[in-house]
Amino acid sequence: MRGPTRSQTVRCELYFDGASIGNPGPAGYGYVIRCGESVYKGSGYIGETTNNVAEYTGLTEGLRRCLELGCRELVIFSDSELVVRQLRGEYRVRSKRILPLYRAALELMERFGSVEVQHVRREANAEADRLARKAAESGVVAHRKP
What we know:
Elements (H helix, E strand, L loop, with lengths): L10 E10 L4 E11 L2 E12 L1 H19 L3 E6 L2 H7 L11 H11 L4 E6 L6 H18 L3
Parallel strand pairs: 1-4, 4-5
Antiparallel strand pairs: 1-2, 2-3
């Protein structure tokens, strides 16, 4: 499904989440993008890692997809208070594992005309959460021994 035409000023909403079974453990990410009447979803298994790495991976993958779709104005929603506060500059990123993902997210965010980051309750992020958990569980199944 193609996104809006480049001539349109497009306001999109990005909901993202990450999941790790164990921490660290098999992990996945999920995102849901709403642009007008259209909805786009994505997810993926990312191997053995932490929940925070999975969260940031969901964010960066969702941001890349928003750019592909031609989104210009973006509102980002997350149920991770830590990620939201880090993106807003309220908390520093101290983890060496997270810092490159954080920087990548900031670089991607700079490519939009405007970006707003909001914290939402878990219930408002349920579909991204479901996608992330399903992706993480796909890794568990893939790693089981017969």
